[in-house]
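Weekly puzzle thread! Below is a chain. First person to post its structure in token form gets bragging rights.
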Amino acid sequence: MKKTSKGFTLVELLVVIGILGILMGALFPAITAAMLSANLSACAMRGRNLFVGITTANTERESNGLASVWPKNANNKSDDTEDIAGMTFSTATDYFKELFDLDQFGSDQWSPYVSGVDIGVLSGSGVPGFTGKNIQPQNVTWIIASGLTDEMEDVLPVLVTRNVAYQQLKTDNYDGTSTTEIPVGKANGGESDTPFSNKAWVLIRKGGAAQSIKIKYSKLNVVYNRQSFTIPQDAQFMYLPVGL
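Winning reply:
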């Protein structure tokens, strides 16, 4: 008796592969969007944790009569050059190296200014972590504000991802109405295409709020919640680049 084959024919296999290809093509945009949203949320959480660590350190220092650990400029730094409040920094990478006391990292003398914060908050979402003590700009996600004072408005971004054109952020005043676009991506003025390329970026405000901003909404009125403000000229408020 002749045996009957129960396998698939080549045509049937090609049809199935074709259907799967069509389904993948249809679902790919949705999958990509979901992955972007998840990565933005994770990055925002890391930025928020970094902000909380800095804020907690400042609360502890205030009770001891010490100045804030936020980056200083020549006008508002303390006289104690052995303390972070008496130092000035030209890049965010140098600042974070001091904040986390990376020169002593792994030794008995290690004493970071922030506690309870994993150093991993500095990287992630395509930005590689560092090993050992030698942190490099390519390991740092965050551009940070310098010259910050208590009197400044809570809406100001104090941490932003390195892929945004931070030079377009307001460091003097804002009228609350301008809808000027803030470019994203290295080709548009950001320091790097990671994280998120030219699709989105993350900010942490002085008041502690974290916000993910997709390129469609990367405009001044969104960044500043349509709030006007003026920064005193002598404050020398600015953003420290990662230093790539």
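Puzzle host: Confirmed. Bonus trivia for everyone else. The chain has one domain: 10-240.
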